[in-house]
Amino acid sequence: MQTLQGWTALVTGASSGIGEACALSLSQAGARLVLAGRRGERLEALASKLQTPCHTLVLDVRSRRDVEASLASLPSDFAAVDVLVNNAGVGLGLEPAHEASVDDWETMIDTNCKGLVYVTRALLPGMVKRNRGHVVNLGSVAATYPYPGGNVYGATKAFVHQFTENLKADLAGTRVRVTDIQPGMVETEFSLVRFKGDAQRAHKVYEGMEALSPADIADIVQWCVTRPAHVNINVVEVMPADQGFGPFNIKRR
């Protein structure tokens, strides 16, 4: 088991849900934290709970210019990022492809794919130069298992998976590790955002079943990054016990 004492971790989408839980968990394990997200007041509230030094960074990962400038100018105590948790992501809508909003599609692509790539590319050279680090990408079971209305969201998570696998190919022989965490249903603000603030509809997604919690995913992230330095956990697929695999979607005529 590796210790995180003296390590610096950067978590995107840290203002709520899985990102917030990861920040708390990594801080408890001894890491300094860079908390990145769009909601500054939430980041500050989270920072006040942490047991280790932290730096808050109001950042929209969709802006390449802002990502590059912000990460290039991190304070010296936080500049050498050892663990990157690419958690920022979004799902929007459940309409079939021929009715879906192209604006929603673009937002998912810009956040889940391009934003993840921007942050990774900005921090990866430093990890390679220091020959230590870990990139943890938050994917989804939607990368593998399609469902009606999951069209572009699932495609973005398939991108995350393939990008992670290709990073591993490029980084073989270094001590920079890469992991794709693929959760199933996790009860966060995800569905509230997907349904654009419709709390009743979002609540029904988790009604009558026990979903995973953000802390469950944070525990897995911490486990992955604390394995011995020669061990790389490539992919972790995790679902709640109440979730399984559905039958093929067949339309009868």
Output the keywords.
alpha/beta, seven-stranded parallel sheet, 8 helices, 15% strand, globular
Task: Describe this protein's structure.
The protein is α/β, with parallel strands linked by helices and 253 residues long. The protein has one domain (8-238): Rossmann fold (3-Layer(aba) Sandwich), CATH 3.40.50.720. Helix content is 41%, strand content 15%. The chain contains eight helices and seven strands, in the order E-H-E-H-E-H-E-H-E-H-E-H-H-H-E. Strands 3-2-1-4-5-6-7 form a seven-stranded parallel sheet, with helices on both faces. The radius of gyration is 18 Å and the shape is globular.
Please summarize the sheet with the most strands. 7 strands, parallel
Percent in strands: 5-15%
- Oligomeric form: single chain
* Rg from Cα: 18 Å
Number of domains: 1
For CATH, the homologous superfamily is named as: NAD(P)-binding Rossmann-like Domain
Architecture (CATH level 2) name: 3-Layer(aba) Sandwich
The arrangement of helices and strands along the chain is: EHEHEHEHEHEHHHE
- Strand neighbour order, sheet with most strands: 3-2-1-4-5-6-7
Helix content: 40-55%
Distance between the termini: 57 Å
Set down the secondary structure blueprint:
Layout: E1 8-11, H1 17-28, E2 32-37, H2 40-47, E3 54-58, H3 64-72, E4 83-86, H4 102-130, E5 133-138, H5 151-171, E6 176-183, H6 190-194, H7 199-205, H8 214-225, E7 235-238
Parallel strand pairs: 1-2, 1-4, 2-3, 4-5, 5-6, 6-7
Helix pairs in contact: 1-8, 3-4, 4-5
